[in-house]
Structure formats: C-alpha cells, structure tokens
Amino acid sequence: MVGVGVGQHHGGTRRQAAAPLNLEQTGADMSDPITPSTTVREVEVAIAGAGFGGLCMAIQLQKNGIHDFVILEKAKEVGGAWRDNHYPGAACDVQSHMYSFSFETKADWSKRYAPWHEIQQYILDTVKKHNLRPHIHFNQEVVSAVFNEGTGRWVIKTAGGETLMARHWVLASGPLHVPAIPDIPGLSGFKGKVMHSAQWDHGYDLQGKRVASLGTGGSAIQYVPEIAPSVKQLHVFQRTPAWVIPRDERSYSAFRKWTFKALPFTRTLHRWRCYWTNESRLWPILNPWMAKIGEAALKKFISYQVKDPALVKKLTPDYTLGCKRILISNKWYPAFNRANVELVTEAVREITPDGIVTKDGKERKLDCIILGTGFVVDPRIYMKSFELRGLRGHTVQEDWKVSPTSYYGITTANYPNMYQLVGPHTGLGHNSIVFMIEAQVNYIIECMKLVKQKGADYIDVKPEAMTRFLGEMTQALQGTVWSSGCKSWYQTADGINFAIWPKSTWRYWLETRKVNEADYVFGKCAGLTGSTGKAFGSGSGAGQAQGAGAGTSVGARAGEQAMARMAQR
Q1: Are the C-beta atoms of 300 and 226 separated by less than 8 Å?
Q2: What is the reported pTM?
C-alpha cells in the first residue's frame, strides 16, 4: 500500500469542479498538517495502484456508471508486478487463460503459461481498450490517507504536494511491490554489481561473470536456469528448498488460437477447465495425508532430474508439500547438473567487498550478487511509515500491531469507505488471484451502492464481524498443510498465518457475492463540526446472527480466542 503515487492531471471523464477547493471550504480537519491554502481535487473514488487490482476496480466502476475516479500509481507505467519483474525467464505460474479478467479474455495467448512481457502487453491493451489512462496519475508517491470525520471524505496527500479528497478509498497496490533486501553484514560494501530480481539491470552483461543468487523462490527458479549457460560460475545460496512440480511448456497452435477467436465459447470452456484443474490442487492442501502421495512422486521427479545423490538430498524439502507455495519448472533441477553451478546450503556469514563468506569461513569471489529474495508482504512492515488514519485516530500501525486483520480481506473496522484488494486472508496457493480480485471488486461496488441507497456518508464494518471472520479463518487453517509447522511468506514473523484463504475460491465468491448489511454500520457525518456523527441502518444483533449463519457463535468464539492468543505474543 505504501509507495503508491499520483501525478499529472488526469482529465477526461471525471466530474469537473467549478474550481479547485480549499480545505476550509471542504470542511477538512484543520488539525491535519495540510495547510489551509492547499488546493484539493475532489473525486468520488481514489484507487491506489495500477496493476490487475486497480485496473479491475476502475473498469467495473465504469461499467456501473461511476466515472469520477482517479488511479494513483507510484511508477511511470501501469502493470504492477508485471511491469517490474522482467528478469530472464520471468513468467506466470498460473495458466494464461486463468490469469486474466473473465470479462476481458484473450484468444491468442502464446503458451499455457505466459511470459511476463505478454502479460504486461495484455495489461497495456486492456488499459487502452477501456480508456483508463486519462484517470491515472503517475510518478508521485502517496504519503498519507486520513479520514475526515466532519466531511466523510478521505484526504489523500502526495509527496509532490497534491491533495485529493475522495468519498471511497481503494487500496489496490497488492503485496508484491516492495523488494525484500536481506540484512546481511557488508552488503552495502560489495564492490561488484548488486541487483534484486524485481530491479533487473539488463544493461549489465552477465557473460563470463562470477555470480551469486541469494534465494530459491519463485523468481530464482526462473532466472537461474536462464543465466547459468552464460555465466562463468553460479553459486545458488539456498536457505530452504522448495517443492517444484513439472511445468506444461506447450504452446497454443495456430488452429487452437483461431478456434478461441472464432468460437469464444471454447475460450470460456478452456478457462473453466483450467479453473477446476487448479481447484483440485486444494484437496492435498486441506488433507495433508494426500500431500504425502504427491511428495513421494516429486521425490522421484527430483531423483530423475538431478544426477548427484548428495544434491538430490539438499534439494528435497523436509516440510509438507503445500506448506510453502508450490513452484513450477522443468528447468530448475537440471540446472544443478551443470559443472559451473554450485548449490550452497551453508548459511551466509557476511559479504566482503569481493564476495560472500559462509559460516564455515569459505569465501567465494564474485562479480555480481542477485537478490532473489522476494518481497515484503507483511503490510505492517511496508506500511510502517505510511500514515493511514481512520475514525477516532485509529491507525493501521496500532490496529495491526500483532497481525493484519480485515473482513474478507476487504474492509477493516474504523476505516470507513476504505477497501482493500488482496488484503489479509485472500492470498492463494493453488489458483489465480485474479479470480479473487474480481470477487472483491464486485463486493466493493455493492458496498458503494449501499452507501448511496442508505443515504449514508460512509460504511464501516463492525469489529465483531471481523472477529467472527478471523475465527472462521483460524478454524479453517487447522489441520491443513499451512499449519504443519513450516515458515513461509504467508505468516508474520511470529508465525501467524494472515495471508492465505484456506478454502476453495468458489467458496470465497459465494460468500462475497452479496454484502451482509448486518455486518456493517452506515454512518452520517455531522458536517463541519468534526464530530463522529451517528450511525443508522446498521441492523440488530439478532439480524447479524441470522445473516451470518449457524456457525456464527462458533466462529466468534474462535476469533476471540485467536485474538487473545495473538495479544499474548
């Protein structure tokens, strides 16, 4: 969420104000550090991020007759992760026909799993088709978003001095935009080239270089086999091995592409086949005994692809299949058969100006260090310095002190008219996140409609609804491979799994296709007085229990227990 940005005038379809407003005219909280003379632009919806989430939100706003919106983007181009991740071999690990919008399918995907540039082009084409560029502000970082209780508007400021006032505030920057830089002594003093996989320098020639790759996750398994043939020596530093399954590398034939184009229903059928194939992967995750069958097959796969038995042992995980994200590649394991590739499992002690020293005292001389160390996915870390303030001075730094918590990963108590895409407990380990994004966007649209229908200024989820949801997630995670004991990016440093949706994706769609009004408060502001206003139409306790279903009390108790355990950490 931090690091999104705004910039140039967006023009176009936005409602035109007669003149720029000033904070005194808008009733903004004058205690806010914005000076009274600061001019503001007023919009109905502000969206942070121009990746899949932000673009989906914008398109659906248009389809629902809402054209008064702005997309705030920190970079100079759209695309999010697919703009930034262009390292050698970068590609998606979800099938092309599933990793795209259901309302904007593509007939001519080249392969089952598309390379990064094809996905980025798809994004660019979608932006052009729906004429979204006039709504996008580029190259100015958002530094704060504060809810004004007098006006019911979010006051959003940028580092460049711009101020926006928005009725609805959508955080769509996702968790994969802040590279994780390891805290290794001496890294800053290395005399050679250092680059993160998400900041790949294609101007640096790796030919004949001595290279170290730190990390063996989703990016490393793609670029390591690609650069191995050209470098002099490649040292792959592994902390924990990953389960890697075979990849379908087939391309779509010209006839298949023609069929997809001429007969659109075949595109739909193929997409659904991909969807249910992915959903079937959930069963071993929910039933660890089934995962053991998969592990046995994959151990044979590793032994078949790697010649050295000692390497096979080092490359074989000791944790349950699916506890960490399962990776896909046909090239990863064979890369270690090369004479110039070394797998290093000894921990790194320090980095010298000339190389890397491991705990055993051995130094490997290097020209280049590549950080395949992924991203900071815990919002409590990447939002550490980001001012996000809701009702009565609530901040995410305080409210998420123990662990990020939201209702269906979308709404958070005490942050009215604020919505998240790919928030807590909406990440996946088996299917396309785009499917989840579309469900979340539809839910947000319904929330916005309810605010208008109720004649309210804002919608705010009840804390008890969040507690109930947390309990349901806690219960659902029990007995799954995600709770089998391994450490992963799904968890906080304390081991709390805040990221994963532990059910089928169709269940998420089913549970979010309609907003349960009893879970929300619909508030009215008191104008320019700065008071907290009043709530109405929020539903009774009985209505809430009825709307939540039979498992409400169990979920609530489980949620309270989970929150108590977290508070003790």
Answers
A1: no
A2: 0.86
